[in-house]
Amino acid sequence: FSSSCFCLFIGDQARVGWPAAHLTKAMPSTYKAATYAAASCWLEDTKVTYAANPKSGKSCQRYAQYEKSKTVGEALALGSSSADLLFDYEHGYLTVAPPFRKAPLDIGNVRSLEDLTYTDMVILKFLAFVDPKKKATSERIMGQLSERLNRFRQIRRRLQRLEVANAYGMENADDLGDAKGFWECGETWARRSTADKEARDILAVIDAKGRKVTDHELLRVLRLWGFRLNETRKNVMRPGQTSILSDTLGLTTDRTGHTLKREETRLYVDFNKLVC
Does the pLDDT value for residue 262 go beyond 70? Predict the structure, then answer.
């Protein structure tokens, strides 16, 4: 790759509904004691109501996924993190309604992790902030708790892969990329993964035959690729056009001058090898 970047765009096409890029705001690392105390009494079925999406960046995309949730458990299942719950509640974006626990979940009374819901295990992490005396007890079981939470997340990620593969006609969910990109929706993830697999198959053939990539093969892969809707590249738009499908591959520099590998390059290696 060059030291700058390699750009791809399709000027005559536009696809509605793909995520747009925004700046990401960092969440605070700590919250008010009252926030931790309130959250530690929430249950899987505690009712939630979210305000209209007030965020930007990656948190905006997550919020859009879970803002229609009806319960705490559903919010977590739809992508809210524990930090999202605390942040949204403390800033007034999230309101909650019964049922609640009468008192915070007590680690000392937990006899088996089998008795806990996923929400319970997330809430347990709040207890050290609510009652510092419980911190030692919390640390003793945190290894088991973390292992079980990781297992829940693996199951949830697998279900997501199966749902995306089924929604976009992929025969094998394992053909999806190892990770979903920062700004990718399900369709973009599926299309880019399909293009990457096709590129991988083409590279294997040309390596075996010792020949170059043909224009037809390159075009086939580009047609499979899920391009991002770009409204900022006015210099390549025709009169009256408001957007293009555009992606940047290779290396770019951030505002501080650091050289970074583009996400599209890091996640879809074979597509980049074929195109670049």
Answer: yes
